[in-house]
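In the design runs reported in the main text, the only information available to the sequence generator was the tokenized backbone. The following block is the verbatim input for one such run; it is reproduced so that readers can re-run the procedure and compare outputs position by position.
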């Protein structure tokens, strides 16, 4: 399902932004507000790498990339996902006019519930029939299935962490620390830099662990961001409930019915 690759790119692009904002210096001060812009971004990166679970909400043009930078070439993409290092995940991915899909993952077990628009965009000519067949149920399978494995790639926290620790993008330049502010009720210290013609703003929690609270990407000079990633729920468990058998259809029941692309 090609839409899943779009969603996965959203995660990797956002994570790489954090890595390329960060410099080499490691701060030791307890007061985040007293640190330099480079130290704050490094502390934020380290805190994010240490998280065992998190909640991510993304909106905007994370749809593709050119040279590592998000582009606006695809329809707007958003996702709302809670995930952990144990392979558990729950949430949804919205591809705008290309549809949306709900995801539940517990270890290797996967449940997906695409909407009708998603079926039609991902399986042209047969999507309507598949949507009717599945109805309001989840597709049930495991990550041994290549379609389910690809679609749930966005739920892999280890991949997210690897993209942060191993990012090779052109580093952001001109890091500047802004004035204290609030994001969703949390006190933050903004750090802003420029990367490949875009302005990237990293809002870091001012107290407690310096987790990144929000990452915004905007065209240089633009007032509004073209993409925003919000993060919270660090180290909190992913909801354990899974769809019942009555709510599910084994993906093997679709064998021979279609070949998703």
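Verbatim output:
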């Amino acid at each position: 399902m090609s839409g899943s690759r779009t969603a996965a790119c959203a995660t990797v692009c956002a994570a790489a932004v954090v890595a390329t904002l960060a410099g080499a210096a490691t701060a030791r001060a307890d007061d985040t507000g007293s640190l330099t812009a480079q130290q704050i971004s490094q502390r934020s990166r380290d805190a994010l790498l240490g998280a065992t679970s998190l909640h991510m909400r993304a909106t905007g043009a994370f749809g593709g990339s050119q040279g590592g930078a998000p582009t606006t070439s695809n329809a707007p993409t958003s996702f709302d996902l809670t995930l952990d290092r144990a392979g558990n995940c729950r949430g949804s991915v919205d591809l705008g006019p290309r549809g949306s899909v709900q995801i539940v993952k517990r270890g290797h077990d996967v449940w997906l519930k695409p909407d009708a628009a998603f079926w039609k965009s991902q399986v042209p000519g047969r999507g309507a029939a598949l949507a009717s067949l599945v109805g309001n149920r989840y597709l049930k399978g495991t990550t041994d299935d290549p379609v389910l494995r690809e679609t749930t790639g966005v739920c892999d926290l280890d991949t997210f962490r690897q993209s942060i620790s191993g990012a090779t993008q052109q580093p952001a330049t001109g890091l500047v620390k802004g004035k204290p502010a609030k994001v969703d009720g949390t006190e933050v210290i903004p750090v802003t830099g420029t990367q490949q013609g875009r302005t990237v703003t990293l809002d870091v929690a001012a107290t407690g662990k310096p987790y990144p609270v929000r990452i915004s990407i905007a065209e240089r000079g633009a007032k509004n961001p073209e993409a925003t990633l919000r993060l919270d729920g660090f180290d909190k468990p992913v909801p354990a409930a899974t769809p019942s058998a009555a709510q599910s259809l084994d993906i093997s029941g679709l064998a021979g019915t279609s070949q998703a692309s």
